[in-house]
Design brief:
The structure holds 2 protein chains of 2 kinds. By secondary structure, chain A is an alpha/beta fold. Helices cover 46% and strands 17% of the residues of chain A. Chain A contains 17 helices and 10 strands. In chain A, the strands form 2 sheets. Chain A has a 5-stranded parallel β-sheet with strand order 2-1-3-4-5, with helices on both faces. A 5-stranded parallel β-sheet of chain A has the order 7-6-8-9-10, with helices on both faces. In chain A, helix 7 packs across helix 11. The termini of chain A are far apart. Chain B is mainly alpha-helical. In chain B, 36% of the residues are buried. The chains are: A alpha/beta, B mainly alpha.
Chain lengths: 461, 176
């Protein structure tokens, strides 16, 4: 069987992900593996159409297309994303249509599900036959049971192809929004001293997004800066070299203006608005480039005291995965203002949404409102905390120091553990257990009732 | 003041006869301990607050005074630490075995009536009594096997641990 491996790592053959694929190649000698190091060759594909056509020809002739990538910033690497954009831009979908496909990734499992969901959606959009997916931890290859799992993943793909099994698609096709928005520009209604930055990849042709930005900007009387990602003289994408890990110094620092501009945004902004147009099932690859390069701050929350919101042009309501990524991105650091998209029927409707969104942004910022994170933020932070306290912290010294200095290592304390141990002992006693279980509702609210009593008595607010 | 601390102070006051017995290095310790124990028993019977500890201490002191003064058993005084620790340990474990931990009666004085008969209250006191029973038995063994400063320090440390646990454990009791 002929396998095409679409490698999504900027490290090429030295990718951690590729070591797992090499393992499969070594023990499945009756199959051939053809590696395409997509990220490394993206510049060539951009400039030479025939090179991308060659890749597509290989894909057409393969028995299986394996999307194999490390997770970058809740998705795939920006250049991998660009590769996907290029397929659609150059109408090369036919090469993928009807081909069997599977997904394999390595990561620390931080939002690996959103990356998988994205690629799964792309496969469905390309009308491929999606068979399997597997997400491994970066170090799983060293574990015998995980190697066995990887081989079973491989065998199950072969099993499906040999029997011509076809599985149901997970995603419906996206219906694009058609409403041409013309904003009603009025005098600013909201005055504020807060500083606002709009990060956008807007181009002249992005009519709706341009109008949305203008509407937002015109609603506020204050300092609104627009940072267009196309004006960054970025030298290149994140290389995954992890040189930033030790003290958050990127290999590109002083070679391009990314770091300076990012630092300026971090330093000078109270309210951060991301304004982008949806491309396939995410924002643009340029936006992804911006997010990936912010890894110069590794796992440190850089937007910690900021309000963040999103002006999105495109079918955001149909892309729950994208919404989750953006919400999770915000919850790791900042406070979410909300989302506004141009999925409306009338201009006045969108005018109202943007004005309300701007009002809320200012209100939140002026009241220092920080909502408690839900599972997206809490789960993510706990995962980072454990990784940084463990193996990752050895290399990512910058993270370790930051987490230590800012009390991020909020593991259950010795006191908590002792308390739990004691309670387990008592719960092991039948009459104690029965009593607690019978009065569980009262036990659960006993501390809450104390607070309410204090509030009632004017002892606290 | 936490309820646990209040209970601990109450229990310590109940130990006054033993404190006299341990700290006065002549037979007056035995005699004064006996007198105070009987005084506390009578006082608490009068106030309808008699506890098993009152009964035990009165019984213990009457017996050892009879053995010493009547039976001329000198070891009752010379081995007073080992003897009293063993007696306390056995008393504690017997009360656990009978499902009537002695600390429960001391604790009742400091908690509201709603805790009376509560299985939570009973289980917490069973654990505390077990801890004290273990502390006493260990202290007796240490006194029996050694008579040096390290042994004495260890006993004191055990007692401190017992006090700390007696104060903290009730705080973890689920509330309603």
């Amino acid at each position: 069987m002929k396998w095409i491996i679409l490698n999504g790592s900027p490290k090429g053959e030295k990718s951690v992900t590729m070591q797992s694929i090499k393992y499969l190649e070594l023990i499945n000698t009756d199959h051939t593996f053809d590696y395409i190091h997509v990220v490394n060759h993206m510049r060539t594909y951009e400039q030479q159409a025939d090179k991308l056509n060659e890749v597509c020809q290989k894909i057409k002739e393969a028995d299986l297309v394996l999307w194999a990538f490390p997770v970058y910033h809740m998705l795939v690497h920006s250049e991998y994303k660009r590769f996907i954009e290029l397929i659609f831009e150059r109408h090369l979908e036919d090469s993928f249509k009807g081909q069997y496909t599977a997904v394999f990734s390595t990561s620390i499992h931080f939002y690996d599900h959103t990356a998988h969901q994205y690629i799964n959606g792309i496969c469905d959009d390309l009308d491929m036959k999606f068979v399997e997916q597997l997400s491994h931890d970066m170090n799983d290859l060293m574990k015998e049971d995980k190697r066995k799992q990887l081989q079973t993943f491989f065998e199950s793909i072969v099993y499906s192809i040999n029997r011509s099994l076809v599985y149901a698609k997970s995603n419906k096709g996206i219906v694009k929004t058609n409403h041409m928005y013309n904003a009603t520009i009025t005098n600013p209604t909201i005055k504020t001293n807060k500083t606002i930055t709009i990060i956008t990849d807007v181009k002249d042709k992005d009519h709706n997004l341009n109008q949305m930005i203008q509407k937002f900007k015109s609603s506020i009387s204050g300092d609104v800066t627009i940072e267009n990602l196309h004006t960054f003289n970025g030298q290149g994408p994140c290389l995954g070299c992890c040189k930033c890990a030790y003290e958050n110094k990127c290999i590109y620092d002083f070679k391009d203006d990314y770091r300076d501009r990012l630092d300026r945004i971090i330093k000078n902004t109270d309210i951060l608005i991301f304004a982008g147009a949806i491309k396939d099932r995410y924002l643009s690859a340029r936006f992804k480039w911006f997010f990936d390069r912010s890894f110069c701050y590794t796992h440190i929350p850089i937007y910690a005291d900021k309000q963040m919101g999103f002006l999105i042009s495109g079918p955001l309501a149909q892309l729950k995965n994208l919404k989750q990524i953006l919400e999770a991105y915000t919850q790791m650091d900042a406070n979410l203002i909300g989302f506004v998209s141009d999925e409306v029927n009338t201009d006045s409707e969108l005018d109202q949404h943007i004005e309300s969104f701007a009002n809320k942004a200012i209100y939140y910022s002026e009241n220092d409102y920080k909502k408690e994170a839900n599972f997206l933020g809490v789960g993510g932070r706990k995962l980072f905390r454990d990784e940084v306290a463990g193996q990752l912290g050895g290399i990512f010294k910058g993270d370790y120091q930051f987490y230590k200095n800012h009390g991020y290592f909020d593991f259950p304390t010795q006191k908590d553990r002792l308390r739990a141990k004691l309670m387990r002992y008592f719960m092991g006693k039948k009459r104690f257990r029965n009593e607690v279980q019978n009065k569980m509702k009262d036990h659960m609210i006993s501390s809450h009732k104390k607070i309410l009593k204090k509030v009632e008595g004017g002892l606290c607010r | 003041m936490s309820v646990g601390l209040r209970v601990s102070i109450g229990v310590t006051l109940g130990f006054v006869p033993l404190i006299l017995y341990w700290s006065i290095s002549n037979t007056w310790g035995m005699i004064s301990g006996c007198m105070v124990a009987i005084y506390m028993l009578v006082k608490n019977i009068w106030a309808h607050k008699m506890t098993p500890m009152n009964l035990f201490l009165s019984f213990y002191f009457v017996v050892i005074n009879m053995l010493y003064f009547g039976g001329k058993q000198k070891w009752v005084f010379s081995s007073r630490h080992v003897l009293s620790y063993f007696a306390l340990g056995i008393f504690a474990w017997v009360s656990v075995y009978l499902d009537k931990p002695y600390t429960l009666y001391e604790a009742r004085k400091s908690y509201s009536k709603s805790f009376d008969g509560s299985p939570l209250f009973l289980e917490v006191n069973l654990l505390i009594t077990k801890i004290w029973g273990s502390v006493y038995i260990m202290a007796a063994l240490i006194r029996l096997l050694t008579n040096n400063a390290l042994g004495i320090i260890t006993i004191h440390l055990l007692i401190v641990v017992g006090i700390v646990l007696s104060i903290t454990i009730p705080n973890y009791m689920p509330e309603t």
